[in-house]
Design brief:
Elements (H helix, E strand, L loop, with lengths): L1 H6 L15 E5 L7 E6 L11 H8 L4 E4 L3 H6 L1 H8 L13 H15 L11 H9 L11 H11 L3 E4 L3 H6 L6 H13 L1 H16 L3 H10 L4 H23 L4 E6 L9 H7 L3 E4 L9
Parallel strand pairs: 2-5, 3-4, 3-5
Antiparallel strand pairs: 1-2, 1-6
Helix pairs in contact: 5-9, 6-9
Length: about 290
């Protein structure tokens, strides 16, 4: 389920400041030495793992591997997060829809999730979307790209850091009403084939390192404004604060959702505004290598 909670902002950007490329080096100013910022796509689709070789090499050159969350810590916080996922009082998912609407939702859940569909009746719509989203792209890798990166860091003896806790990431959900979540889920269900096509486009743009194309898509999507501010803009601010603080004493490979990078509030611009030099690292797209 964490795929969607992280991945929802892998397609999100908040302004017109553009960027192309996924890997950036950061140096100068008050930082210890050269660090790196990398944009991920929160998926198990092997096509998104095309920079494995470069990532492994860079990890060996830094002190810390940082992600949005420390994936091991997030798993440990599962029990704490559970109440945020459950519908209030005695509400069930069917209560949020007409009988005809829920019939369509239930049919897709059974088709895509099998026995797991039974778990959805008490979940908030956002988390039902999380479960469905994992069926949108191939899952031929064992781990999410973000989790794989952190495992490479641990394997290499690097310190692993999270730029937020799982609870901090979820706190922005309160900015989206149950009605907004319910409408979003119904749209996903009724346009399933269209959603699959969009996800394929996003994956293709990611592999081609076309972050601006992902930005254009986001600008055309109807993301609730308050949710955008809480789940993206606010997080960009403290991501920047926290990774910059680490960079002052240690070198870092920072891996966050790709479109946390561009935009006026994105990490690239925010780090430059702090007097740091941020330059794209030229890489070669070799899908599946």
């Amino acid at each position: 389920m964490w795929t969607f909670l992280l991945g929802i902002v892998a397609i999100a950007c908040s302004s017109s400041v553009s960027a192309q490329g996924l890997m950036y080096k950061v140096y100068g100013g008050d930082v210890q030495d050269t660090s790196y910022v990398y944009g991920t796509f929160h998926t198990r689709d092997s096509r998104a793992f095309f920079l494995k070789k470069e990532i492994k090499q860079i990890i060996l050159s830094v002190d810390v591997v940082a992600g949005e969350v420390n994936m091991d810590d997030a798993k440990d916080q599962a029990a704490e997060m559970a109440p945020l996922m459950i519908l209030p009082n005695d509400t069930v998912l069917a209560n949020l829809y007409t009988p005809e609407e829920y019939e369509r939702i239930e049919a897709l859940l059974k088709d895509k999730l099998g026995l797991q569909a039974m778990l959805c009746s008490r979940l908030k719509p956002f988390f039902v979307m999380a479960m469905l989203s994992e069926k949108m792209l191939p899952g031929d890798e064992k781990h999410l790209l973000d989790e794989w990166i952190q495992k490479q860091g641990k394997k290499s003896g690097r310190e692993i850091a999270g730029l937020e806790t799982a609870m901090e990431a979820l706190s922005g959900l309160d900015s989206m009403t149950l009605r907004e979540q319910a409408d979003w889920l119904l749209e996903m269900v009724d346009d399933w084939d269209g959603q699959l096509a969009i996800m394929e486009d996003l994956n293709r743009w990611y592999v081609n390192q076309e972050i601006d194309s992902m930005h254009v898509y986001y600008q055309s999507a109807q993301i609730p404004g308050e949710f955008d501010r809480e789940f993206l803009v606010r997080r960009n601010e403290y991501f920047t604060d926290r990774v910059h603080e680490i960079m002052k004493t240690k070198t870092v490979f920072c891996a966050v959702g790709a479109l946390h990078l561009p935009g006026e509030t994105g990490l690239i611009n925010a780090l430059r505004e702090r007097g740091l030099t941020v330059e794209v690292v030229e890489t070669t797209t070799e899908v599946g290598k």
